[in-house]
């Protein structure tokens, strides 16, 4: 396994700020697929949103990041994906031996934003195919002429997620749960080693949210790591293989499933 | 709160004072000129009637040319403004690219259509070619701006999601920017065509083809009844184009609601597939 860094900035410690809480070293045990060390990030140069976050995402595990609004969860995900560049610290994506992967390491990290980022006027199939853009030549993709194997793969992925009958349906006609599935299909088409999902079941009814999370659990059993942010303690208690709690830009708890009860989560968040 | 009220009253007073000064400066407050003006207007209006239908065949041909100038000019302008608008979008390119591109679009927009007409008449000589080129440049100035604003308004999460899949800039344009802004592109294109029909009428005044050439001639020769025929014909065509454009817009863009703005794109992509 070789380490390939997608972000490798090192800078002087920001003045007047301190790393908070636990998590000064990645959690031991189990191979990691993505590792963040001492991440510091500020949008305005004054208030730090991330304060020395150190975190390891284990291969094939469902890691739930719990935190209140404004605790830095979304910024952490964007930084892990490489969409924002930390003022200090490193993010390392570790190559997956199972994949014959010649792509840039960042492409092995799929990102599901809170609003899903689906193109509403495109069909479910076209949205799923956008996940394969890095694997298809530019001209072929511009001509919407994807290789037959890729096209079949996209159809099968959508079918596996229970949307075979909505392949050509534009996203704006799909329900919230169906859109969630299309977003997962797009992420899977990226052939990721890790999927970063930001609060992505928060707006669903409890039953649909459970269905989607069960689906995500099945995905993690296939060896794809998941890092899901949420503010819902019952979701963390039920689905998290690993629980990370964030407060004020720092990690205050990082432990295995069962290391915190729901009441304990509420207490630690206060 | 009191400060805001005072500020609001101050602004109202300032606008009223500016309006009064401007009216005075341009002579609209001179009551002695109102009477003769109304009398002249009444005389001119009476000389427009009855319209002379003898010139209708000639004018129909010229009107067709005007519509063609507008159509070709809008099409050429669209083809030029689309790539230029991509270069202007700050969500797609850095300042080194967007600044000169925006400067270009801004400079083109500064020149009125009639001046573009004069310029191309000088370059190409009298005729509809000059009119079509003038309209196309005028279109670039406006569509370029409207389009890059539409591109920049695309939901940042959609951009992040497609960029995050590893798609390059061209793929980002094809899979996020164009589909998400398709409604604005089509709606503005139809509006520009309607507008260009009117603008093309004026092109004839500088010899750049179309019905405007005849309008100017009738004015200079005091053939006001012929002029009235030309005006009525223009009115009918403009109304017809407005109606057809509205129908077309209703067909492809049933609603401006974001969740319902996809049928045109769905139709296009299904043809493409």
Describe the structure.
- The complex is a heterodimer of chains A (270) and B (273).
- The radius of gyration of chain A is 18 Å and the shape is globular.
- Residues 1-28 of chain A have low confidence and may be disordered.
- In chain A, β9 and β10 form a beta hairpin.
- Chain A has helices spanning 73-81, 124-130, 138-142, 148-160, 176-189, 206-221, 233-239, 262-269, and strands at 3-7, 32-42, 48-58, 62-67, 88-94, 109-112, 194-198, 225-230, 242-247, 250-256.
- In chain A, α2 crosses α4, α4 (148-160) crosses α5 and α5 (176-189) runs parallel beside α6.
- Chain A has a domain at 119-192.
- By secondary structure, chain A is α/β, with parallel strands linked by helices.
- Chain B is mostly helical.
- Chain B has a single domain (52-272), classed as MetI-like fold (Orthogonal Bundle), CATH 1.10.3720.
- Chain B contains eleven helices and no strands.
- The longest helix of chain B has 35 residues, at 169-203.
- The chains are: A alpha/beta (270), B mainly alpha (273).
- Chain A binds chain B through residues 78, 81, 83, 103-104, 106-107, 109-123, 126, 130-134, 138, 141-142, 144, 168, 170, 172, 183, 186, 190, and chain B through 155, 157-168, 170-171, 174-176, 179-180, 182, 258-262, 265-266, 269-270, 272-273.
Summarize the structure.
The complex is a heterodimer of chains A (270) and B (273). Chain A is an alpha/beta fold and 270 residues long. Chain A has eight helices and ten strands.
Topology of this structure?
The complex is a heterodimer of chains A (270) and B (273).
Chain A: E1 3-7, E2 32-42, E3 48-58, E4 62-67, H1 73-81, E5 88-94, E6 109-112, H2 124-130, H3 138-142, H4 148-160, H5 176-189, E7 194-198, H6 206-221, E8 225-230, H7 233-239, E9 242-247, E10 250-256, H8 262-269
Parallel strand pairs in A: 4-8, 4-9, 6-7, 7-8
Antiparallel strand pairs in A: 1-5, 2-3, 2-5, 9-10
Chain B: H1 2-25, H2 34-47, H3 56-88, H4 95-110, H5 113-124, H6 128-152, H7 156-164, H8 169-203, H9 211-220, H10 224-252, H11 263-272
């Amino acid at each position: 396994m070789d380490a390939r860094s997608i972000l490798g900035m090192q800078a002087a410690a920001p003045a007047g700020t301190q790393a908070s809480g636990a998590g000064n070293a990645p959690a031991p045990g189990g191979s990691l697929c993505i590792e963040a060390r001492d991440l510091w990030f500020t949008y305005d140069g004054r208030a730090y949103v991330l304060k020395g976050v150190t975190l390891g995402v284990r291969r094939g595990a469902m890691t739930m990041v719990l935190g209140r609004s404004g605790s830095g969860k979304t910024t952490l995900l964007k930084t892990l994906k490489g969409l924002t560049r930390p003022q200090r610290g490193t993010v390392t994506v570790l190559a997956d031996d199972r994949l014959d992967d010649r792509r840039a390491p960042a492409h092995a990290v799929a990102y599901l934003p809170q609003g899903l980022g689906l193109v509403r006027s495109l069909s479910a199939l076209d949205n799923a195919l956008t996940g394969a853009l890095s694997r298809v030549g530019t001209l072929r993709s511009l001509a919407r002429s994807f290789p037959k194997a890729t096209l079949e793969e996209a159809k099968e992925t959508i079918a596996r997620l229970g949307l075979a009958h909505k392949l050509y349906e534009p996203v704006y006609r799909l329900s919230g749960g169906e859109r969630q599935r299309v977003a997962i299909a797009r992420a899977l088409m990226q052939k990721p080693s890790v999927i970063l999902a930001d609060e992505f079941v928060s707006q669903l009814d409890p039953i649909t949210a459970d269905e989607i999370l069960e689906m995500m659990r099945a995905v993690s059993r296939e060896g794809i790591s998941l890092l899901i942010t949420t503010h819902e303690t019952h979701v963390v208690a039920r689905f998290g293989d690993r629980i990370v709690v964030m407060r004020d830009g720092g990690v205050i708890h990082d432990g295995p499933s069962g290391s915190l009860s729901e009441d304990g989560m509420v207490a630690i968040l206060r | 709160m009191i400060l805001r009220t005072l500020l609001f009253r101050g602004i109202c007073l300032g606008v009223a004072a500016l309006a009064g000064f401007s009216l005075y400066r341009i002579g609209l407050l001179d009551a002695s000129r109102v009477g003769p003006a109304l009398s002249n207007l009444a005389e001119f209006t009476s000389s427009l009637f009855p319209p002379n239908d003898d010139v209708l065949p000639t004018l129909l041909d010229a009107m067709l040319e005007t519509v063609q100038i507008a159509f070709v000019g809008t099409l050429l302008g669209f083809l030029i403004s689309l790539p230029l608008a991509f270069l202007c979008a700050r969500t797609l390119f850095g300042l080194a690219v967007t600044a000169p591109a925006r400067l270009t679009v801004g400079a083109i927009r500064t020149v009125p259509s009639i001046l573009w007409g004069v310029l191309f008449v000088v370059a190409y000589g009298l005729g509809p070619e000059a009119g079509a080129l003038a309209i196309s440049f005028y279109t670039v100035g406006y569509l370029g701006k409207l389009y890059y604003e539409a591109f920049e308004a695309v939901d940042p999460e959609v951009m992040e999601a497609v960029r995050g899949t590893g798609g390059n800039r061209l793929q980002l344009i094809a899979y996020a920017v164009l589909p998400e802004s398709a409604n604005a592109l089509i709606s503005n294109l139809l509006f520009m065509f309607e507008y260009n029909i009117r603008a093309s009428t004026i092109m004839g005044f500088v010899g750049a083809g179309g019905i405007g050439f005849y309008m100017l001639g009738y004015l200079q020769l005091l053939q006001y009844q012929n002029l009235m025929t030309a005006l009525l014909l223009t009115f009918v065509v403009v109304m017809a184009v407005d109606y057809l454009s509205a129908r077309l817009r209703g067909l492809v863009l049933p609603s401006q609601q974001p969740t319902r703005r996809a049928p045109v794109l769905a139709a296009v992509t299904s043809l493409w597939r």
